[in-house]
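Box S1 | Example of a co-folding query
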Amino acid sequence: MSQHPLASSLQAWKELEQLYASKGKQINLTKAFKDDPKRFETYSRSFNSSKTDASFLTDFSKNLIDDEIYKKLLSLAKEAKVEQQRDDMFAGKPINSSEGRSVLHIALRDLPQDFNPPVEGVDEVKGELEHMKQFSEQVRNGQWKGYTGKQIDTIVNIGIGGSDLGPVMVCEALKPYAKRDLTAHFVSNIDGTHMAEALRASNPETTLFIVASKTFTTQETITNATTARDWFLKSAGDKAHVAKHFVALSTNVKAATEFGIDKANMFKFWDWVGGRYSLWSAIGLSICLVIGYNNFEQLLLGAHEMDLHYKNTPLDKNIPVLLALFGIWYTDFHGCQAHMLLPYDQYMCRFADYFQQGDMESNGKTITKDGERVNYETGPIIAGQAGTNGQHAFYQEIHQGTRLIPCDFLAPAQSHNPLGPHHDILISNFLAQPEALAFGKSEEEVKKELSAQDQQNSFLVKSKIFEGNRPTNSIMFPKLTPAVLGALIAMYEHKIATQGFIWGINSFDQMGVELGKVLAKKILPLLQGGDVSKVDGAGHDSSTSGLTKYYLTHRQK
Ligand SMILES: O=P(O)(O)OC[C@H]1O[C@H](O)[C@H](O)[C@@H](O)[C@@H]1O
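Box S1 (continued) | Returned holo structure for 6-O-phosphono-alpha-D-glucopyranose
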């Protein structure tokens, strides 16, 4: 028997198809809630941690499920051997099979050493954390001085993808814990504008550049870092000063050394840390600098508590597993294309961007680990925005569009900025949107609100109807603390892993980003050569050649 069969060949999958056809698509949430006054109790789950302040409530009751469907989804997880695959991950087995690597971001936050996978490098985690602690404390307390003896007041994190999105998202989310007199810039894009704007706002005497790159070969990051170093040396002159102003976060010590970074200023991690799972590693140095090491540690511990929950909780109470199963119910049986992440917390404004990479780069795959092409959908399109902004932008489609778009709503019970009526108003929206999506507004209700004349206008009446039955998960936590954030991130990481386990794909490589990079490297000499007459013979299609010629004739001379 194959190790990673197509999910569609599983018995539970086939039965779910039948359940979808016989009743799944007709589940009516209004009726379901009326029939079962305890539906909220039945389908909500709590996450509590004894060692941190991380806790939250997840309400799954507004999903298009009944008891039979729910149980069948759990059987799917069993039959797909989710528990075995999860345990293999925690044990350090090389589950990233295309690259022959373990997947051990869980080891980065295993401070109490509950898992201790026997993999090379795991025993170095504590030492690296200690290095990050010492360094970040020195910078924050002013002991670390720039080349003219001044304290550091600005950091520029240079990285892209996983070496950017995690640190940006967390620094934004935990701003209430930030050292406010330390300015942090995050430069990722190869577009010179990104670096130029950061440099414009920085002083070479007081700026620390953090070059964050797992491979230390990424074109954007190396180009940006080189530009930053040139800019710095223009003022500092002597190359010896680079050591005070540049540090590297990487698994590639050799390349970082060649770039000119002092060994003492290197923070390393290991090839078993995926880029999009790396904020817990040395890649989190900018987070330590901004919020302080102790808060960073709380972030790790909150995530670790979620790791324990995922590892040790039976499937029917296992929050990441349930999120994964409901997601599969929509993606593969209801035919949904997208999934929205909607945090009602301004500090979480980059959360959806972060998990856009986390989810789409992990599960945007068509080939199973056995090398077969899937005959079902895998990872959904992830998008979202901090509430209530999204309500005034794209919620129209979620409420009345032709597509079914499942959404996760997240919100804190307490605000870091309790300002007059703001938080109650915010939360009233957080509560109202899932209610509106689930229960809608019937023709009868619409008509009641209209004048006798307007009631005759069938276009108007129909336009105001909300069909309802649009599924949501709601997640509430007391306050957005470092540990709560850590647990929420880990929860989604494990949701993504679980879905990948069921779909039989490798969620931990990203071969799909390579081809474009290779072609860009082929095109670049054509642009740098600048000879329009050479374009046609360069072996590109007529579209690429036509666009290249347009660029060469219109670019800055
Ligand atoms: O950290 P780096 O090696 O510079 O990689 C940065 C990013 O680029 C790659 O193309 C991958 O798609 C991402 O997963 C990765 O996070």
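The domain at 7-95+313-439+471-509 is CATH 3.40.50.10490 (Rossmann fold). Residues 160-163, 213-215, 218, 221, 275-276, 361, 510, 513 surround 6-O-phosphono-alpha-D-glucopyranose (CB under 6 Å).
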